[in-house]
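pls ignore typos typing on phone
zinc ion + seq
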Amino acid sequence: MRIAIISDIHGNLEALQTVLADIDSKGVDGIISLGDIIGYGPDPVACVDLVASRCKWSLMGNHDFAVIYEPTNFNKAAEEAAYWTREQFENESKRDREGATKRWEFLGKLRVRVSMGSFLCVHGSPRRPINEYIFPEDAHGAPLKINAIFERFENICLVGHTHVPGIFTSDNEFLKPVEFNSVYQFVRGQKVIVNPGSVGQPRDRIPLASYSILEMKDENTPECVHFYRIEYPIQPVVDKIHAIDALSNWLGDRLLEGC
Ligand code: ZN
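k done
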């Protein structure tokens, strides 16, 4: 069984379409989304509709929460983007009531935590599923935090939120995909945290869309996880962001830098 994991799309439709086409070309049994479908990017409505139609389910990320409910601890650019994003959903509601009802239902039902056999899936961390970041530098720099987080799950934890792909091991290491040739073999009895990276706003200085595919015999027998990076048309997304006043230019520029 093969399950694709996507996360942190952030309204980047070009990146999402490219990733979905790549997933289709590899063949999977299902796709799951770890949240932050929207926020920052210029195509929130289209991204939500695509995730609703293509994914088994999506989690609630902090940016999804900000748009549906309210922004908490956001900087000015992120808060303005959240309000602009909400406006796009409201405008679309006036245009197509029926579509909008379905869309709000989908958004209203996003869960903060999903258990799937050996896997616990959250956007941020098992302690604070919407908002807590598990940064690569925490592996060495905040061992108490990492240890406390590892106590909160049994087997394998899937997270997004930092937009940095890689694996946290229980002996306080963070491994980038390049360190294990982009395929990590799970070892029975060894806990790990897996972050597939971000589809729509990578932040590891590599401006390529990131996602993963899990391989397992069944949900209780995980085998390995593959990490993929793919090119997508960035410039059209940057141009769209630059043309929208409420979205800071920086939100476009950072896509070119992967940061
Ligand atoms: Zn995010």
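Residues 8, 10, 36, 61, 63, 161, 163 surround zinc ion (CB under 6 Å). The chain has a mean pLDDT of 96. more later
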